[in-house]
Amino acid sequence: MTSLLVTGAAGFIGSHFVRYWADAHPDDNLVALDALTYAGVTANLDAVRDRITFVHGDIGDTPLVSGLLEQHHVDVVVNFAAESHNSLAVLDPGRFFRTNVLGTQALLEAARQVGIGRFHHVSTCEVYGDLALDAKEAFTENSPYRPRTPYNASKAGADHAVRAYHETFGVPISITNCANNYGSHQFPEKVLPLFVTRALDGAQLPVYQSKDNRREWVHAVDHCRAIEAVLERGRVGETYHVGTGDEASVEQLADLVLDELGRGQELKTTVADRPGHDRRYLLDSSRIRQELGWEPTIPFEQGVRDTIRWYADNRAWWEPLRDRSPVTENDWSRS
Ligand SMILES: NC(=O)c1ccc[n+]([C@@H]2O[C@H](COP(=O)([O-])OP(=O)(O)OC[C@H]3O[C@@H](n4cnc5c(N)ncnc54)[C@H](O)[C@@H]3O)[C@@H](O)[C@H]2O)c1
């Protein structure tokens, strides 16, 4: 039996991971830690509530975390906890650096103190900065870090802290840098659930002026499977990219939502770009495919259409959440 501490477990991907792991590894012990910021949703863990231990707490609280690591004989930490919304980072950058950099360092410190078996850190493609829309290359694990926004810079800082704890103190770490995720249970401030929930209410979909800017998309469950592959077969101290090669622009995403829900083009409205809005990210994920045999399993268009249907069928999940977000996309045109 392995004992895991999963941080940020009440968020979008963290809760997918806890539900996935509880089903795939029923004999393992799961401790789910979350500070329950506006983005943490305890209902995301309802399906596994009787199979996990949930702890309300902050990754920055080293005494709390080292106590949990000892009490539950934790072998593996998987760190999803973060402030994750790029738009909020423009309005309140300080909280991003506090949680994503200093919080990760405090968590590393607790892991170092108890001699953890593995510290896996969940990161993003956004640490590399952006690519030109017509660029032929993709980011590799050796690309230089060139973050352009406070969120990206704070995630980059966390990655550096994780590597420093490996090189300096020998903490057995691994890192995954993943493309944009989609799936059920994503907080309705993020672009796909924002578009779906607006369209369901017959409200406007705010499409950024640079509507051809595009992202690489991966289903959250395929991301969880990639982390599982790294934990089981990955090399300690290594970084693995997680991507699909499936790129879609913000406008293509809006069109898919409108098509699936049978709504008209008049719901699209153009809004000013967020400051520092990146043009494009694309990861070279050949390392995880060749070394660990990971492949995405959920086809992009089908996965997105199924996700749209999930939001349509689960209004009771998202309706109470949408007013909790501290920022609305329409703000940029007024700021
Ligand atoms: N969503 C994506 O497309 C994507 C892509 C690549 C990487 N990531 C990374 O994956 C991780 C999870 O992202 P997400 O989309 O699920 O975000 P999310 O905002 O849905 O979830 C983050 C969770 O962390 C919790 N949290 C915040 N501060 C905390 C703290 N100090 N201590 C403990 N818990 C805290 C929140 O309450 C929330 O439940 C993040 O590290 C993010 O950078 C996300």
UniProtKB/TrEMBL annotation:
Its EC number is 4.2.1.46. Keywords: Lyase, NAD. It catalyses: dTDP-alpha-D-glucose = dTDP-4-dehydro-6-deoxy-alpha-D-glucose + H2O. Residues 5-307 form the NAD(P)-binding domain. Its cofactor is NAD(+). NCBIfam families: dTDP_gluc_dehyt. This is dTDP-glucose 4,6-dehydratase. The lineage of its organism: Bacteria, Bacillati, Actinomycetota, Actinomycetes, Pseudonocardiales.
